[in-house]
């Protein structure tokens, strides 16, 4: 079993409800247990144009799935939530990102882990720190340092 962390985000169609239902779906994944979830946070959108605020959270799983199998399963959940991949960085009903997969470093066409932009996103780092304040990334950087260096962005615990 591998411990992994998933970033959840939504800014359309009842975002907090989208996250709750995504957690139910993650809970139901095969060979996987949902160990923990952070608080939900509202966050100012990062990205182009006008879009509504997001609700973000981080979930902690233990899984026997391989990284690609987990990615397939998460993308299937996104699809069921009506995710349309039209505009890069546009508004979305549900976004599920593999942030960390044990201590693995993965760089394939489908998947880059640790998530390449997590260090710049307080809506990822804050909820992650709620779950594992002492976390070290596979490249040796520690979460507390990343948090101190992260650009500020409006973030409120719900
Ligand atoms: N901005 C915020 N605040 N939260 C997100 O989850 C999020 N996700 C994205 C982009 C569009 C980059 N901006 C975001 O994919």
SSE blueprint:
Elements: E1 2-10, H1 15-27, E2 32-37, E3 41-43, E4 54-63, H2 67-80, E5 95-101, E6 106-107, E7 112-113, H3 122-131, H4 143-149, E8 155-157
Antiparallel strand pairs: 1-4, 1-5, 2-4, 3-4, 3-8, 6-7
Helix pairs in contact: 3-4
Task: Give structural notes.
The protein is an alpha+beta fold and 158 residues long. It has a single domain, classed as 7,8-Dihydro-6-hydroxymethylpterin-pyrophosphokinase HPPK (Alpha-Beta Plaits), CATH 3.30.70. The chain is built from four helices and eight strands. It has helices at residues 15-27, 67-80, 122-131, 143-149, and strands spanning 2-10, 32-37, 41-43, 54-63, 95-101, 106-107, 112-113, 155-157. Helix 3 packs antiparallel against helix 4 (143-149). The chain binds 7,8-dihydro-7,7-dimethyl-6-hydroxypterin (ROI). Residues 9, 43-47, 54, 56, 89, 95, 123 line the site of 7,8-dihydro-7,7-dimethyl-6-hydroxypterin.
Short summary:
The chain is α+β, with helices and mostly antiparallel strands. The protein has four helices and eight strands; from the N terminus they run E-H-E-E-E-H-E-E-E-H-H-E. It has helices at residues 15-27, 67-80, 122-131, 143-149; strands at 2-10, 32-37, 41-43, 54-63, 95-101, 106-107, 112-113, 155-157.
């Amino acid at each position: 079993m591998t411990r992994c962390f998933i970033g959840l985000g939504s800014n359309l169609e009842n975002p907090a409800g989208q996250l709750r239902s995504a957690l139910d779906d993650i809970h139901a994944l095969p060979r996987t247990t949902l160990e923990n979830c952070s608080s939900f946070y509202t966050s100012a959108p990062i990205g182009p144009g006008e879009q509504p605020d997001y609700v973000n959270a981080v979930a902690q799983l233990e899984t026997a799935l391989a990284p690609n199998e987990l990615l397939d399963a998460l993308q299937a959940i996104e699809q069921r939530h009506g995710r349309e991949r039209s505009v890069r960085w546009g508004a979305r009903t549900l976004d599920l990102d593999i942030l960390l997969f044990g201590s693995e470093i993965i760089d394939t066409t489908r998947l880059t882990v640790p998530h390449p932009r997590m260090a710049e996103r307080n809506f990822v780092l804050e909820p992650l720190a709620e779950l594992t304040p002492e976390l070290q990334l596979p490249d040796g950087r520690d979460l507390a340092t990343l948090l101190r260096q992260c650009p500020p962005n409006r973030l409120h615990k719900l």
